[in-house]
Amino acid sequence: MHELSICRAIASSVEDHADGRLVTSVRLQIGHFRQIVPETLSYCWELHTRDTPLQASSLDVDYIPAVIRCHDCDTETTLSQPVIRCGACDSRSATLVSGEEFLIESIELQDKDN
User: Fold this and answer.
1) Under 8 Å CB-to-CB from 72, ≥6 apart: which residues?
2) Using N-to-C axis directions, what is the helix angle for 38-49 and 3-18, rounded to 10°?
């Protein structure tokens, strides 16, 4: 369950950037090839942030599909399996366009006055 260690790293970075302000939500971009189970990530976030300043925050995840661009016919194919093969010409000569992302896209903060 590497999702728990991922949540620890995210929480640490978020707390550093929040600078004492209340965090209401954390938005992530996670690519298909990162092999993170959404339900497990959400569960681990709740578990790790319980009784911390991040307890009230939500974890919002945008899952990015794995997409390749074929070198032979220049077609983009969204992969449903972890097999890099063009959906148009069946070529294996391709470049990964998306699917390896792992990014804290944004952090929503409440003003210190509220």
Assistant:
1) 86, 89, 91, 93
2) 50
Give the pTM.
Answer: 0.83
Name the residue range of residue 31's domain.
Answer: 3-109
CATH number of the domain enclosing 66: 3.30.2320.80
For residue 58, count CB atoms less than 10 angstroms from its CB and return exposed for 0-12, middle for 13-18, buried for 19 or more.
middle
pLDDT in tens, 87-108: 999 999 999 999 999 999 999 9
Query: pLDDT tens across 3-21, in order?
Result: 999 999 999 999 999 998 9
Enclosing H/E stretch for 15: helix 3-18
What Rg, from alpha-carbon coordinates, does the chain have? 18
Q: Is residue 74 part of a domain?
A: yes
Distance set, CA 65 to CA 30, 79, 99, 105 (Å): 9, 7, 5, 16
Q: pLDDT tens-digit profile of 50-73?
A: 999 999 999 999 999 999 999 999
